[in-house]
Design a protein that fits this description.
The protein has about 400 residues and is of the alpha/beta class. It is built from 14 helices and 13 strands. The N and C termini lie far apart (about 70 Å).
């Protein structure tokens, strides 16, 4: 009887081990294939950054209206706004848009001699639309007639003096519907979670390369005024919270492409702990799931496969099958290698941040592994929620153009 029980147990263990090996090989094969594709994308991003930083903006510099929505005080706000008011560009006005005239952010608006700066107050219309979009719509309606281009920037980023010229330059091509940069986080005081935000966010930055950009980012985007009207961007914005995803959809539906501009990258800072990080990251992914579901599902599937392959590999190794180690590493190392390339890209994009990058040398490589698991956790946390808190407001995202303002 004992012998029979022992044989049955060994049989069950054998079945379990066999299933584990099948799962390991399936997930590992996919992870290795994804890793190879990831390296190709990483090389494309690095080449695009190097080429873009060498290229000089063309001479096309039409009149521009630069719109900056604000909401409350935030660290470095005055310097951030000053960098936008001090652009090396021949003719541009700046519209600082807020919900109401008593917003504390307006008290930090620096003086700009010789620069046309106007404050636009939006109020609460249209209802059931994100506050940022209400501010943008009010500002666009007040843009001077002479401006041929509308540019948009966020108040929590700092830019170089040639940022606006670089951002506007690709719009000389009629096939380019919108031009965009992206952000890079440089938390001055370091710390695990602020550095994790930099690494986590750099993963998205690394998806931009040559060819059409995956989307336009709201903190650094520009389009012709006539394109804004013809593509019906204002209609796409109404009832929405995400300005950039909806603008991207409008531009693409108009048959135009979005151009990534490495010289239009933005430096952001900020500290915070785990709770703030996960709240921020979860909000980004909830917005992505609602406004770009295909992009969300592709990311979720990729990180599930990566983490599943790592977990299955660890289980196989625990059974003493050390031959699985090279297979496991073949799925893990490409992500770390691509992280190293993102660090190199940051040095090219932000030469003035070399000291910071020297202080935190290697984070984009060594934090790549925990970042993968954090990505999976954030995807899981965003898979069923539709409520987000953004700038002291709570929104329920019922659809791309259906938003309920809760508080």
């Amino acid at each position: 009887m004992e012998q029979h029980t022992s044989m049955a147990q060994r049989g069950r263990e054998g079945i379990h081990s066999g299933l584990l090996l099948i799962l390991f090989w399936l997930l590992s094969t996919l992870a290795v294939a994804f890793g190879a594709q990831s390296l190709r994308l990483g090389r494309r991003h690095l080449r695009a950054v190097a080429a873009g930083m060498k290229a000089q903006p063309n001479a096309w510099a039409p009149p521009v209206t630069l719109i900056v929505p604000v909401k409350g005080r935030e660290p470095g706000l005055g310097e951030n706004l000053r960098s936008l008011l001090d652009q090396d560009y021949p003719d541009y006005e700046v519209l600082v848009a807020a919900r109401e005239g008593r917003d504390p952010a307006l008290a930090e608006l620096p003086a700009a001699p010789g620069r046309a700066v106007r404050v636009i107050t939006a109020g609460e219309e249209p209802a059931d639309t994100g506050e940022k979009i209400r501010n943008l719509l009010a500002a666009v309606a007040q843009a001077r007639p002479a401006s041929q281009v509308l540019a948009f920037a966020d108040s929590d980023g700092r830019v170089e003096r040639d940022w606006l010229r670089a951002l506007v330059s690709p719009l000389a091509d009629p096939a380019v519907g919108a031009a965009t940069g992206y952000r890079w986080y440089f938390p001055e005081q370091g710390g695990f979670w602020p550095l994790m935000r930099s690494v986590w966010n750099s993963t998205i930055a690394g998806t931009f390369g040559t060819g059409a950009a995956p989307f336009a980012w709201g903190g650094a985007m520009a389009l012709r005024h006539e394109t804004f009207v013809a593509a019906r961007v204002a209609q796409f914005w109404r009832g929405a919270v995400s300005d950039d995803y909806r603008l991207s959809q409008a531009v693409r539906q108009a048959g135009l492409r979005i151009q990534y501009v490495p010289r239009a990258m933005v430096a952001s800072s900020g500290q915070g702990g785990a709770a703030e990080f996960f709240s921020w990251a979860r909000r980004q992914m909830i917005i992505t799931r609602v406004y770009a579901p295909r992009l969300w599902w592709m990311g979720f599937a990729a990180h599930w496969i990566y983490c599943g392959a790592m977990a299955a590999g660890a289980a196989v190794l625990a059974e003493g099958k050390w031959w699985a180690l090279p297979v496991l590493l073949a799925g893990v190392l490409p992500g770390m290698w691509r992280g190293t390339w993102r660090g190199r890209a940051a040095r090219i994009l932000f030469p003035g941040r070399a000291a910071w990058l020297d202080r935190h040398r290697g984070i984009y490589c060594w934090l790549a592994l925990p970042t993968t698991w954090i990505w999976l956790a954030v995807f899981a946390a965003s898979s069923w929620r539709r409520r987000i808190r953004w700038r002291h407001r709570v929104y329920e995202l019922r659809g791309p153009s259906q938003t309920r303002v809760l508080s």
